[in-house]
Amino acid sequence: MPTIGLPAGRVAPVTKPGPQRHRFYWHMLIPSLAVLIAVTLAPTVFLLATSLTPLDLTRPATIGDFTHPARNYWLLLEDRRFLNSLWVQARLSFWTVGLQLLIGFGFALLLNMRSSLLQALRTVFLIPMVLPPIVVAIIWKVIYTPDISPLHWAIQSLGWRMPALITDANWALTAIIIADTWEWFPFTMLMILAALQMMPEEQIDAARVDGASAWQLTWYVTLPYLKGVLLVAGLFRLVDSIKAFPLIYILTDGGPGSLTEVTNYYAFIQAFNFSFLGYSSAITVVLVGFTVILSWLILRLVGWGRDVE
Amino acid sequence: MPHRPKLPTGSHLTVAAARFHRRDLLRAALACTAGAVIGFKVSPVRGQAKKFAGVNISGAAFQSTYHEYLKSYLPEFEAETGVKVDFQQQAFPVYNQRMDLELSTKGSAYDFCNLTFIYSGRWVGANWFTPLNDFVKDANKTPTDWDAEDFVAGTTQHLKNAKGEIFAFPWEAGGMLMAAARGDLIEKAGLKMPTTFDELMKVCEAVNNKEGVSAYVADRLHHWNWIPFLMGFGGKVFRNPPEDLFPAFDTPEAANAAEYYARLITEMSPPGVMSFTDDQAMRAQMSGRSNIRTQAITWITPLVAHQESKVAKTARYALMPAGPAGNYPGSNSHGLGIPAGAKNKDAAWAFISWAVSKKTIERIVKEKGYGAVCRRSVITSDYFTKSLTLNGDSVAPLFLQVLELGGKTGYMKYRTVPVFPQVGDKINKAMERIASKQQGAREALKQAQEEAIADLKKAGIPL
Q1: β-strands B84-90, B56-62: how paired?
Q2: pLDDT digit string (tens) for B148-171?
Q3: Which of A177, A212, B32, B271 allows an S-S link to A164, with CB 3.0 to 4.6 Å?
Q4: Which residue numbers of A have CB closer than 8 Å to B's CBs?
Q5: Strands (E) located in A139-230
C-alpha cells in the first residue's frame, strides 16, 4: 500500500526521535511502568528478600534478619522432601502436558470433521475446562473414593477388584494425572481446533493429489502446520501444571507420604501450616527460576522475539 | 384518682410522653426500694443491658455443630446486649491456616475467635491472644455466678500460660473413647468390648468383613489417632514437652505402635481409609459399613443420637483400650478467645461469656443433645448422664475420666507445643508411608525423626 504523500513504491525514511520527543515517550510510559513495578516487580523483590531471611511468623524478630542470607537455599539442597517434590512436579508436568496435547490433538482432528453431531459435541467437551477447579476436584474425589464411587461400584459389580487409587502408592500420582488431563485437555483441543480451521485447504488438496495417505497427511502436513500452536499450548499447560493445587489439596493432600507432593504444594505447607515464610519464599524463588528458564527455552523453540523477515 | 390527660398523637407524642411527673418519680423510687428490700438482686451485668447497642463484632471458628446451635440462639443474645455478631465458620484446616496468618499480623479483623488445641502453644506463646483474667474478675463484665473454675482442669490447661493467665474458655472437649457401631457382631463372636490392644486386635480379626462390615475405621489425622497407641506401647512424641522438644519417635516402641496401627488401617479398615475425613469415617460407622473407631466423643455419639444412623440399636461404647504401658486416650479442647488486636474486646467478652456460660451449655445439651462439653457441673448432672447413656452404656463418666486423665498426668502436652504442627505433619507422612507399604516402620519413623529435627532447628528450638 503506498504511503500518503509519497510516490508509489517509496517509503518514508525512519528518523530517530529528537530529545524532546524521546522525553515525551518516556513520560507516556511512566504510568504503565509504575503499575508494572507495583504489581509485578515489587512482590518479586519482596519474595526474593524474604527468601534471604529465616522469617517465621511465630518469631517476629526474624522478619529482617539477613545474617545468613543463603541459609534457606543451603537447607533446600539437603531437604529430601523438597528434592522429591521437584521430581514429582517433573513427572506430573511431563505426563499431564503430554497427554493433554495428545488427546487434545486427537479430539481436535475429530471435531474438525464436517458433521453436525460433532459440531454439537464441541460445547460438551469444553465443560471440564469451565468448571471451577475445586468442583473438578470434588467430582474426582467422589469417583476415587471406594465407598461412594460409581466407578468402584461398576467394577465390583463385574466381579473385579480395584484399589483405592488416591491412597495406593502405585496409583496416586496417576490418579492426579488422569483428573488433571480430563480437566484441561479441552484447552489444548480448543487451541488446536482453532488452528486447524485456519489451515489452508490448498496444502491438503495438493498432498492428496500427490497421493498422500491420511496418516501421511497428518504427519507431514497437519503436524508441521500446528507446530507453533502445539508449542504455545504446551507452554501454557506447562506453566499451569506447575501451579497444580486444588486437585492435590482435595484428593491426596500430597500423599500417601509425599508421592503426590509437588513443589508449590510443599511451599504452601511450609508457609501456611508451619509459618516458615522465609523457607517457603526460597522454595518459590527456585520454582519461579525453573519456570522462567523453561518458558524461555520454549519461547526460543517457538521463535517469538525474533525479527520477522 | 385525678384525671390523666390523654396523650396526644403524631409528632407531639414523643414530647408529651417524655414529660416526667413528680408522682411517677416517687412511684419508681418506691418500687426500687421495695425491690431491694425484698431481695431482688440486680446483676451488674444485666443492669447494663443494651450497653453494646450499635456495636458490631466479628468472630471466626472452624465448623462445629456447637457453633450452629449457638447461632440459632444468637438473636436472643443480640436482643439482650445490643451487640450484632457476625460469626464465620470455615473448615478446620482452612480456619487454622487463615487464623494463623491473621493472628500473626495482630490484625483487628476479628473480635473473637477459636483458639485451636494444636495451635494453642504457638498462639498463646506468641502473645497473639488477650488475657481474660481481668474480664472474669470484673463484676461489671462477668456475672459473679459464671464460675471460671467449673471447667474441667484438663480442658483449660493448654489455654493458660506459665503465669496462669487464661486466653480462652473451652466450648468443646474431645475425649477419645471407643465405639463399636456393630457391637452385636462382637457379641456374636463370643467376645466383649476390648480393653487392651491385644484384645482389640483379636476382636478385629474375629469380626473383620463379617456381614460386609470392616472391623475398624479411622480418619486421616494419624497424629491424633496413632498417639494413644504410641504411648500405650511405651513411646513418646517428644522427650519431655514442653521443656525438651527433642523428637522421640525413632524407637522400637514407636515402631511396634506404628506396625500395630498400620495393620488396623490397612487390613481391618475399608479401602481408601487413608483419605477419610472425620465425617467420612463417622458416616462409614453410621451406615454400618465399619465397626470400631477410637475417636473423640463428638464423632461417636451420633451413632446412637443421629436420626440417619442405621446402627442406633447396635452401637456400644467403652474406654480407649490400654497398651502394655498404660492407657493414654487423646483429649483436647478448643476455646473461644479474643485476638490481641481486636477492637471491641468488651463486646467480644460479652459474647464469649454468654457462649460458654453454664446456662447456654445446659441449654445446648438439653435441647440439642450435644455431648462434648467442658463444664464439670454439666458433665456430672443427671440430665447429662441420662442423655449420654447410649444403648445402656453410661458414656458421661467415661468422658469425664478421659478429660481428667489428660489433666492429671499432662501426657497431652506434646500436642500444645508451638512446633507441633510441623512434627505432627511428619508423623502423618510416616504413617502414610508405612500403611501404603512404601517404607517399613523403623525406616519411616527414622526419616520422620530427621525431618522433624530439621524443622525444629528451623523454628529456632534449642535441641
Answers
A1: parallel
A2: 999 998 899 889 988 889 999 999
A3: B271
A4: 54, 56-60, 62, 75, 78-81, 144-147, 163-164, 166-169, 251-253, 255-259, 269, 272-276, 279
A5: none
The DSSP bridge pattern shows strands B168-180 and B244-247 to be unpaired
Beta carbons of B179 and B337 less than 8 angstroms apart: no
Domain A88-250, second-level architecture:
Orthogonal Bundle (1.10)
Q: Domains (ranges, CATH) in chain B? A: 47-174+332-386 (3.40.190.10), 175-331+417-458 (3.40.190.10)
Q: What is the pLDDT of residues B204-244, one digit of tens each?
A: 999 999 999 999 999 999 999 999 999 999 999 999 998 89
CA–CA separation, B264 and B444 (whole Å)? 17
User: What span, in angstroms and rounded, lies between the C-alpha atoms of B123 and B1?
Assistant: 67
The count of CB pairs under 8 A between chains A and B is 101
**Contacts of residue B107, Cβ cutoff 8 Å, sequence gap at least 6:** B339, B341
Chain B: residue nearest A53 by CA? B458
Interface test with A, best of B122, B417, B458 (most A CBs within 10 A): B458
Euclidean distance between CA atoms A22 and A28, whole angstroms: 10
Distance between first and last Cα of chain A: 18
**Residue A124: alpha-carbon gap to chain centroid:** 23
Specify whether the CB–CB gap between A79 and A266 falls below 8 A.
no
Query: Can you tell me the ipTM of this complex?
Result: 0.83
| pTM for this model (two decimals) | 0.81
Domain boundaries, chain A: 88-250
DSSP H helical ranges for B268-375: 278-286, 297-300, 302-305, 345-355, 358-368
- Which residue, A216, A215, A223, is CA-closest to A199? A223
| Residue B363 CA from chain centroid, whole number | 17
What is the C-alpha separation between B349 and B197, in angstroms, rounded? 44
pLDDT 10s digits, B369-412: 888 899 999 999 999 998 889 998 999 999 999 998 887 788 99
- Look up cell 525514511; give the residue: A13
Q: Which residue has the cell 502446520?
A: A225
